[in-house]
């Protein structure tokens, strides 16, 4: 049975499963969604199958979580949000997220990440969250800054995706600076 992790007003954050293959492919094959991603757009449905297998392995090992963001109203898989690169002794990890192109601009990711950040600090007892974004990705920067993430550093030429070299803007959020902190 697929485990639900979190719910918000409009969304359920849950484990991915076999129902999601087509939706995952639609999200991660879209060139606009993948414009600032660390790998090129998917070109084969087998990549969606591989991603699902990795996600399911991550739930088992608890080393890496990529959860689905489902819209309550119609059950559509809107996107995914992830917690990964855990350093357990230092109680930190990275967050990642992507929303299918039709669902941008409606505040869905902000809503999902509010819940995810609260879960990371309050339930997983993390002390620090990190995010690595392309400095040109204004929508992603806004999303992080609204959550209270601070710009912490600039790393030139950190990524090479096919032939494009790109930089990293590194963001961090400490538990004690989280506005939802109890
Ligand atoms: C980044 C992303 C998740 C944002 O999700 P979203 O639900 O569309 O975001 P929101 O609707 O909450 O908008 C977030 C903010 O960015 C702003 N924004 C949206 N598009 C923008 C753009 N192209 N340029 C500048 N700001 C933009 C919005 O106005 C909003 O700011 P506000 O709260 O001040 O009004 C979504 O665009 C996405 O999935 N992009 C592709 C994948 C990706 O880049 N993921 C991040 C990799 S690090």
List the helices and strands and how they pair.
Elements: E1 4-7, E2 11-15, H1 21-28, H2 45-61, E3 65-71, E4 77-87, E5 92-99, H3 108-123, E6 128-133, H4 138-147, E7 150-161, E8 164-174
Parallel strand pairs: 5-6
Antiparallel strand pairs: 1-2, 2-3, 3-4, 4-5, 6-8, 7-8
Helix pairs in contact: 1-2, 3-4
The structure holds coenzyme A.
The overall pLDDT average reads 96
- Note the overall shape: globular
The CATH homologous superfamily is called Gcn5-related N-acetyltransferase (GNAT)
CATH class bucket: Alpha Beta
H-E order:
EEHHEEEHEHEE
Q: What ligand species are in this complex?
A: coenzyme A
Number of domains: 1
CATH architecture: 3-Layer(aba) Sandwich
Structural overview:
The protein contains four helices and eight strands. It has 182 residues and is α+β, with helices and mostly antiparallel strands. It has a single domain (4-177), classed as Aminopeptidase. The mean pLDDT is 96. The chain binds coenzyme A. Coenzyme A is lined by residues 33, 36, 97-99, 104-110, 133, 137-140, 142-143, 146.
């Amino acid at each position: 049975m697929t485990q639900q992790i979190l719910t918000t007003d409009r969304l359920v954050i849950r484990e991915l499963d076999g129902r999601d293959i087509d939706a995952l492919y639609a999200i991660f094959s879209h060139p606009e969604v993948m414009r600032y991603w660390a790998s090129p757009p998917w070109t084969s449905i087998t990549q969606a199958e591989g991603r699902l297998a990795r996600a399911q392995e991550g739930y088992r090992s608890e080393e890496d979580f990529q959860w689905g963001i489902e819209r309550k109203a119609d059950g559509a898989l809107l996107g995914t949000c992830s917690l990964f690169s855990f350093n357990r002794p230092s109680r930190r990890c990275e967050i990642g997220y992507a929303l299918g192109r039709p669902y941008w601009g409606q505040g869905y990711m902000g809503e999902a990440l509010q819940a995810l950040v609260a879960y990371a600090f309050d339930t997983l007892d993390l002390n620090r969250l990190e995010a690595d974004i392309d400095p040109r990705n204004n929508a992603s920067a806004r999303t992080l800054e609204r959550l209270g993430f601070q710009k912490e550093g600039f790393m030139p030429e950190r990524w090479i995706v096919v032939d494009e070299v790109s930089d990293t803007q590194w963001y961090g959020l400490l538990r004690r600076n989280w506005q939802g902190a109890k």
